[in-house]
Amino acid sequence: MTYIIKATGKKEEFNKAKIFNTLIKAGASQKFARNITGQIEKKIYNGISSKKILNLVLNLLKEKPEIASRYDLKRAIMSLGPSGFPYEKFFAKVLENYGFKTEIGKIISGKNITHEVDIIAKKKIKKNGQIKNNAKEFTYMVECKYHNQLGTHTNIKVALYTYARFLDLKNNKKYNFNSPWLTTNTKCTPDAMNYAKSVNMKITTWNYPRGKSLQELIEKKQLYPITIIKSMENNIKEKLSDLGIIITKDLLNYDFNELKSKTGFSEKILNQIIKEAKEVSDN
Predict the structure, then answer these.
(1) Do domains 87-220 and 224-281 have the same CATH topology?
(2) Whether pLDDT at 213 is above 80
(3) Would you call 15 exposed, middle or buried from its count of C-beta atoms within 10 A (0-12, 13-18, 19+)?
(4) Please, what CATH class does the domain formed by 87-220 belong to?
(5) Is the pLDDT of residue 83 over 60?
(6) Which residues of 80-92 are buried (b: 16+ CB within 10 A; e: fewer)?
(7) How much is the mean pLDDT over the chain?
(8) Which residues pair with 143 in a beta bridge?
């Protein structure tokens, strides 16, 4: 039995099925995924870190850069950064692709103090699988917690202050918030998860809830962040973000001449990043 060391420092039994399944999700054929998984199985040893395994996989995927980019999706999300290309912009874009209307960074008066809300998300409630014209609009106060290191989890303090902020804001006459929503690009601690369930607070993490986790929301509609494009420099990413280009689909739908005019980038640079965006999105 071989054990690996996770980013949290926790010891876990090596599970080759995780690598295989992630490769399949990234667009690999079953034959190719089995080949890569078999090579990794020969290279691992007791105490190997999960980061080392990731790098081994990516090294074997050099000839398939589009699969490598999708396989490394988690680190692409971590490359969003606290400023310039913030997580809340990306998550709002994901929500919009699932039918939500969003507003970002609004300053709102609560009962006692004012708050800056990361995302206000609104969506009409479905009845019998359909949204009727007179359907009630449900409004979420969304708190985004971004981490730039693997193994860092969102803790109970964040869950507590998110719910406290909701209680102060829920009777705001303009928004009439119905529910708080906490999202993070990593995971939540068990205490945070249990507390959220007890107060009926919606949570979206990298791998929760099943079927609607951050990873699944992204992969189902190919909502890859532009940070997934490996060759792109940070100044290019920030410039595109300023133009509202957050996901690769935004980039591919943008008029080329307008993009060139607004960014000032050369045709060579733009053609390269668009080429990579197409390769990543073609799955």
Answers:
(1) no
(2) yes
(3) exposed
(4) alpha beta
(5) no
(6) bbeeebbbbbbbb
(7) 91
(8) 182
Given a contact cutoff of 8 angstroms between Cβ atoms, the answer to whether 214 and 195 are in contact is no
**DSSP string over 160-213:** HHHHHHHHHHTT-TTT---EEEEEESS-B-HHHHHHHHHTT-EEEBTTBSTTSS
CATH fold of 224-281? DNA polymerase; domain 1 (1.10.150)
Q: What pLDDT does residue 277 have? A: 92
Please give the C-alpha separations between residue 103 and each of 72, 106, 191, in angstroms, as whole numbers: 29, 7, 29
Coil, strand or helix: which one is 83? coil
Q: How confident is the model at residue 129 (pLDDT cuts 50, 70, 90)?
A: low
Contact 212, 191 (CB under 8 A): no
Contact 154, 205 (CB under 8 A): yes
Amino acid at 86: P
Both tokens of residue 104? 């970002």
DSSP 136: P
Strand pairing class (101-109; 114-124): antiparallel
Q: Is there a contact between 14 and 63 (Cβ–Cβ < 8 Å)?
A: no
The whole-number average pLDDT for the span 218-235 is: 89
CA-to-CA distance for 66 and 76, rounded, in angstroms?
A: 13
pTM: 0.87
DSSP 126: P
Question: Is 279 within 8 Å of 253 (Cβ atoms)?
Answer: no
**Could you tell me the residue ranges of all domains in the chain?**
3-71, 87-220, 224-281
